[in-house]
Design brief:
CATH architecture of the largest domain: 3-Layer(bba) Sandwich
Structural class: alpha/beta
Helix content: 25-40%
Distance between the termini: 54 Å
Number of helices: 11
Strand content: 15-25%
CATH class of the largest domain: Alpha Beta
CATH topology of the largest domain: FAD/NAD(P)-binding domain
Number of domains: 2
Length: 371
Amino acid sequence: MERYDGVEIVGAGLVGLSLARELAQSGIEVTVYDGKRRVSDGAAKASGIFSATGLERIGVPYRSSMVNTLSGATLHAGKETLRIKAKAVQAYVVDRGLLAEAAMREAERAGAKIVLNNRLDRNRLLQGAGSGKIIVGADGAVSTVASAFGFPDIREYILTYKAEYDVKRIEDKHMVGLYFDNKIAHRFFGWTVPYSDSRVEVGIGISDRAKITSLMAFKRFVASGGITELEDGGKMANGYASLIPLTSRRKTVIGNVALVGDAAGQVKATTGGGIIFGVSCAKLLAHQIKRTMEGKGRLEEYDAMWRKRYGIDLKMHAVVHRYYATMDSGTLGLFMKMSKLFGSEQFFSKYGDMDRPSLMLKRFFLRGLAK
C-alpha cells in the first residue's frame, strides 16, 4: 500500500480550512493554497445563512460574525403565500468574511500552513500528486483540481446574483422571503434576507440552462414589483454574481486526489447551500485520510462514506428541487394553498430541518408515535 507524507488542499474557503484544521489536529502535515490575497476576499458573493445546528457542527467560533437571527420564511408563488415561523431561532445570518478569518485562525492554531496569493496551476497540481502527497480540491464549483485530474462533470449549475439594499422598513427582520416564478427564476427562486431593520439582501438564482444571465434575471426580479421589502423603495449598495453546483459529481476520489464541498457538488439542491454538508464531508475525509496514511484504509473509501452518510438527504433535496423547478407559479401557488389546508405551516414550523430532511421526518414520526 502506498504511503503518503502530507496533504495539500486547494481552496481556503470554510470547507478547505475546516479540513485543514481536522487534519492538523490529528498531527498530519497539511498546507492550504489559495490565489486570494485574504481568505475573506469574495466571501460576500454567497449568502451568509446557516442553520443554527449546522453552525455548531462547523466547529468555528461564529458569534462575532453574526449579523441577524432568523426564525422562519415566507414563501411566495403567484398570489399565494406560505408562512413558516418557529418559536425558536432556526438560522443565523453571518458575515462570511469574518467567519472565514475565524476558520483560518483555527486552522493555523491547530498547525496547518495557509499559503495565500498562490494559485496552483495544472502542472503544479500534477507534480504534487506525484510527489507523495494527497491532493484535495476544496476550490469551489469550477474546480481546477477536478479539471486537472479528469473528474466527472457537474451536470447543472445555478447562476446567482445578489445585492444589498438600504430600505425604509422591514416588516419582520427575522423572516426570509422566498419567491418562486420560473418565468423569472428559471429552475430556482428569488430571495430576501434581512440583515437588520433597514438593510436587506435581495438575490436570485437561475439554472445555467436558462438563456439569460443572472444579472438580467435579477433586474427582472427587482422590476417585478413583488418584493415586499422594496415596496417603499430602496438604495442598492452593492452587487455580486456567483456560481453554485446543483448536482454532485459521480466520483469524488481518483487515486490520491479527492474533492470536497462545492468542488464535489455536496450541495443542497433546494437552496444551493453547501457549507454545512461540505464541512461534514470534510470531517469524514479527514478521518479517511488519517486511516489511509496509517495504512488502515484506502482514500477511495471516502466516496462511499459521504454518500452513505449524507446521500439520502442530498437526494431528498434534489427531489424537492425537481418538484418546484418544473412548476409554473400558478400551479405552485395552488399547491401551497392546498398544503396550508393540510397543516403544512404548523408541520414545518414544528419539525422543519434546513439541512437534513431525513432527520426532520424521523423526529416527526418518533414524536408522533410517542404521543
